[in-house]
Amino acid sequence: MEKTVRAHTNIALIKYWGKANQSLRLPLMSSLSMTLDQFYTDTKVSAGPKNQFWLNGVEQSGQSYQRVFSFLKLLQEKFGVKGNLKVESVNHVPTAAGLASSSSAFAALAGAFCVHYGINLSAVELSRLARWGSGSASRSIYGGFAIWQKGIDNESSYAYALDEKPQMDLQLLVVELNKNPKELSSTQGMKQAQTSPFFRPWLERNQAELAQMVAAIKANDFSKLGSLAELNACEMHAVNLTAQPGFTYFEPATIKAIKLVADLRRLGIECYFTIDAGPNIKILSQLKNVKDITKRFVSEFHNVNIINASFGPGISCLN
Ligand code: DP6
């Protein structure tokens, strides 16, 4: 009986947005994330008559199949193991949430691969493997807050837990503004972003921004954490706009939502936003303000879907 592995998605408060090495997925910057309780992927790997990838009960072909099996081939080569594999994944990341699922998907897949072959790895070793599938997956090995230190080579580039069970009152409201699939993948977007004249200056700020974020977390300072996360997200989207040629993931609704967050803050309802490679906005807030923020967004965006998430756990085996 093969075991199912569960990994949760994470949202970066200090973003990974650039690679130093494409094939090894070595990042140009260190990043820091919050693992989310509401969104996760369950994956089982077993021996099969041929390689197969089933996602939410549907057999996959094309790009998603290719990405999964080129990753598994790398892992098989690394550990000197063989055999056709059947991968069965269920994504509990509603497309409505506008969240990327590659972080939970590749963390769960790396874990399920190891379970299938009886390979015992430390969390750090598993984080390195997950990184080969998708950079952000390196952080989904851990619960709470995780840091992916960029490192200089395969060995030194992995994530570790900063605090797996934070006591902080931190809520993340995922606002579904747009359900359409993104036009430019993160892999492509972060490549293009490097042509911005502001990319290098942003990179130079990475260590300082990370240190400030860690200090805010340690001091349990929500205001500092929120404003740093918002600044970092704006920097990422500024380098996109100023790339050559420039591009943006923003839609008109994204701008409206950004202004609404500023408006709420002026009214004394403290909240901040972060945005990834898509038009949807995620709002950082505290429990006491969730109701008011939700009410305001629902009225401005006509019954928009909002999911309230908080800290999720690290990777685990289900059975
Ligand atoms: C904006 O991890 O999806 O969410 O390594 O190419 O698979 P690949 O990229 P991916 O990029 C995530 C980008 C981001 C920021 C972040 O999660 O740090």
UniProtKB/TrEMBL annotation:
Its EC number is 4.1.1.33. Belongs to the diphosphomevalonate decarboxylase family. Residues 7-159 form the Diphosphomevalonate decarboxylase-like N-terminal domain. It comes from the Bacteria. This is diphosphomevalonate decarboxylase. Keywords: ATP-binding, Lipid biosynthesis, Lipid metabolism, Lyase, Nucleotide-binding. Pfam families: MDD_C, MVD-like_N. The keyword Nucleotide-binding applies. Residues 173-305 form the Mvd1 C-terminal domain. It comes from Lactobacillus melliventris. The lineage of its organism: Bacteria, Bacillati, Bacillota, Bacilli, Lactobacillales.
